[in-house]
């Protein structure tokens, strides 16, 4: 973990910080962005919510057209501060470029498989909501994404890599 960056965040951080949280499915991106948003008052955005819009509950989400996506994404990037979380995709490369810091959640894959399964069960029991229709097909798709995920993000000078819960809690407490 890059402790120099964490020290600069905690000692010199003004409310104007742009943070991109990257990681594969079930890595805790949404949880962390919510925690940091609550602590700092900085608005948090989910890449999937930017890229997709809610359709009827039977079919799930609908991908936004370029005419819908671009103005929304551009507006977020013009804010003085933001927290954006999601799997890094080419479509969001400008956010990575404009971010002050890129936090990469890089937990062991076995932990991520367990989290994905736990999330699926909670969603099926209606104990947790999701932006997609929970199904076995979606669960297996998440397993596939976790298996295939390789942390490859540009801008190494901005990166903070979190590999365990202790490092995660340290980051949250210093934010």
From TrEMBL:
<dbReference type="InterPro" id="IPR052922">
    <property type="entry name" value="Cytidylate_Kinase-2"/>
</dbReference>
<protein>
    <submittedName>
        <fullName>DNA topology modulation protein FlaR</fullName>
    </submittedName>
</protein>
<dbReference type="InterPro" id="IPR027417">
    <property type="entry name" value="P-loop_NTPase"/>
</dbReference>
């Amino acid at each position: 973990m890059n402790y120099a960056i964490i020290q600069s965040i905690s000692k010199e951080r003004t409310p104007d910080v742009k943070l991109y949280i990257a990681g594969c499915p079930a890595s805790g991106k949404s949880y962390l962005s919510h925690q940091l948003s609550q602590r700092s008052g900085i608005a948090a955005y989910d890449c999937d919510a930017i890229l997709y819009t809610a359709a009827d509950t039977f079919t799930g989400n609908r991908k936004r057209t370029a005419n819908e996506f671009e103005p929304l994404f551009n507006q977020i990037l013009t804010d003085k501060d933001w927290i954006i979380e999601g799997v890094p995709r080419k479509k969001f490369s400008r956010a990575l470029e404009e971010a002050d810091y890129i936090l990469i959640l890089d937990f062991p894959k076995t932990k991520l498989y367990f989290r994905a399964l736990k999330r699926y069960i909670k969603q099926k029991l209606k104990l947790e909501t999701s932006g997609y229709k929970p199904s076995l097909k979606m669960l297996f798709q998440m397993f596939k994404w976790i298996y295939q995920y390789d942390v490859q993000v540009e801008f190494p000078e901005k990166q903070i890599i979190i590999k365990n819960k202790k490092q995660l809690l340290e980051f949250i407490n210093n934010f």
